[in-house]
Amino acid sequence: MQNQKHINKRYHAVNRTRYIQIILISILAVFLLMAAAPVEASSTVTIHNIIDLNGNNTQSNSDNDQLPGSGWSFQASVSSGGSISPSTGTTNAQGVLGPYTVTLTSSFAYVNLNIPVVPSFYTFVYGYCTGTDSYELDLDYLDGDDRGIQEIEVGDSTDVQCYFFSRPRTPILIIKEDTLSDVDPQDFQYSLIGQSSAMAEKYFTLDDDNDDTYSNSAIYPLQWSGYPMPGIYSLTQTGITGWRTESACTSSLGKSQIASNINIAENEIVTCTFTNSRSLGSTPNYPILTLINHVKGDGLAKRSDWSMTAAADDNLKIFESGIPQSVHAGVMYSLNATVNNFDIDPDDYDRSEWNCRTREGIEIPLFNGNSIILNNGEDVICTITNSYNKYLIPGLGPY
């Protein structure tokens, strides 16, 4: 009996020891699993959608023909190694979408970015990505459908920037808004109407301030029902009380074009820029500057034979003699008048110093003889005189 009790004690002692060992092994296994589990990491991916008008020089933009591709839809997914959020989105007025957040479950995640439907009359021509890390991103530039960037290798804490380039396949009309003050919130309404009833009328809004409500440019491929639509178009800006409007158009074919009567060919790109400045007496009351060129003597030159400019670091204003323009307050402008007619010898004319006065007759000081700084509310006229210094020429004199 005593032997049996002794055996039972040893049996229970062994079982307790084994039980404790099992518990310790289980706890150790949990710690090992926790140590082996990857720490959640994340990175970002941002899309830049760009319209390149001729589809060339996409990365360098050496031909200066790129515009933001706003309103395009994109899809994002991860092949392996993590997840991405959100999975869909639309580019803003600057053609930017993101940043997307990529959550990694391994050392690298492989991201796919696609344009599910390329808008009509555009062709996706190129795409690439750059990252903040020094390694080259492992990607296939174009997928089988020519509309995406696949297998972008994204590591931890990486800021990836991806660029999509598409070109139009129709006549293109580009409209740009250039408002004198970059902080003025004024919006401008436009209409584009084609001569043919098949050419749909378009109405849109542009502005040139610092917010993203509206873009300062618009691009329209001219097409209808699957066909390019060259022809005659009228582009107008709705007039606003207190604002002056000037427009100028350029053609990729070197043709003369005006906004109210654009005759565009099938392979032509026309760019029209509308420049708006506040008129005299409007509010807020920006400075107003007028440059006047007096031409004296019996030479053949006219006022228009001189180009007059007021130049600041980031703003160049071209003046017609006697026509006022709004300028920036607190900015130093350098005034200049140079002969633009090859038939006129500038040495035949003696140029005076600039003289600047308010409309009330108060003299405005100049810096270095030709530079001026204006304050809000000031209305200043600056004059210069070019006097003919040669002999009398019979006939009609200058004005």
TrEMBL record:
<protein>
    <recommendedName>
        <fullName>SpaA-like prealbumin fold domain-containing protein</fullName>
    </recommendedName>
</protein>
<dbReference type="InterPro" id="IPR045826">
    <property type="entry name" value="SpaA_PFL_dom_2"/>
</dbReference>
<feature type="domain" description="SpaA-like prealbumin fold">
    <location>
        <begin position="289"/>
        <end position="384"/>
    </location>
</feature>
<dbReference type="Pfam" id="PF19403">
    <property type="entry name" value="SpaA_2"/>
</dbReference>
